[in-house]
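Customer ticket, subject: "Can you confirm the structure for DUF6824 domain-containing protein?"

Message body: Hello, I'm evaluating your service for our small team and ran a test protein. I'd like someone to confirm that this is what the system normally returns, since I don't have a reference to compare against.
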Amino acid sequence: MKFRQATIERIEYSPGPKDCLAGRGGYTNHHIGTNKFRGMCEKMKLHYLLAKTIAEKQEIRNQLISEWENEGGRFLKGDPHHGFRPMSAKEVRRKTSQRLRERPDLFFKKLFSDEMDKMLGITMPEEPLCYDEDTLALLRNPISEFSL
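Agent reply: Thanks for trying us out. I re-ran your input and got the following:
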């Protein structure tokens, strides 16, 4: 018995700057559209993490997806070697929820660190700090100066 191989029409999608890419590797991680979508997620992350019900979280997620798509953004899956395809609505919802709940520890650490710096008036110097030769020597080898 012979089986016929089904012919699947494959449409190649070329990712543009308004596309959020899902996949592994540097290409998808550093893509301009993916980074922009990550930034949008970071802005909504606090609301998502503080939402009390699943329905509230879903509403935030769906609002974020709608905003991205209304700006002409697409969600594509794949890699540059095998091509990209559109993600299903279910995949988009799952990946967006994952992005919103990802690494809350680092999110809150950065949030509180930035807020504390603002409250204390701490700002990073625009020019690098300049040290004299004695201070540089201590910084390079701090134990030798105080060895017993």
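A couple of notes from the result: The longest strand covers residues 74-79. The chain has one domain: 19-146. Feel free to reply with more questions.
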